Amino acid sequence: MAADELLPMPMAALTVDCADPPGLARWWQRLLGGEVEIDDEGIATLRTADGQVIDFAYVPEKKSGKNRLHIDLRSADLDAATERVLALGATRADDIYDGDRWRTLRDPEGNEFCILRPIDDPAR
Questions:
Q1: Which residues, other chains included, contact 47 with Cβ-Cβ below 8 Å and sequence gap of 6+?
Q2: CA triplet 94, 20, 34: central angle to 5 degrees?
Q3: Which of 1, 2, 23, 97 falls between 20 and 30 A from 79, CA-CA?
């Protein structure tokens, strides 16, 4: 079988390295909905209603530096969504991006993510 016959491959999951897989998975569940499962090895998997899968795997080292990959969320109201995630324990990441087109935040373990404006927002 030729290598190009194996492509494209479907993405199975996005994996986030973290110190507390169950805790961080449940935090993201509050934002995205869905169900969290924890396997025998301690990997927590969040399965959203729209079929997205995010795995949270334990690593002993702390996060250092800016993420090379991050999650973008689309909001119906950028300001309200920002306030909601801040109330859940996110922090602003204005050192990464401090503009008006989207908001960059960090989850409780410091992983950056963005909240985007609605598609029909002229400021987008």
A1: 34, 35, 37, 53
A2: 80
A3: 23
Tokens 């169950």 appear where?
Answer: 22
* pTM above threshold 0.85: yes
How far apart (Å, rounded) are the C-alpha atoms in residues 103 and 73? 10
Report the distance separating Cα 72 and Cα 85, nearest Å. Answer: 13
- 48-104 confidence digits (pLDDT tens): 999 999 999 999 998 888 888 999 999 999 999 999 999 999 999 999 999 989 999
Interatomic CA distance for residues 62 and 108, integer angstroms: 12
Q: What is the H or E stretch that residue 25 is in?
A: helix 21-32
Q: How far is CA 88 from CA 2, 7, 9, 102, 106, in A?
A: 48, 39, 35, 19, 11
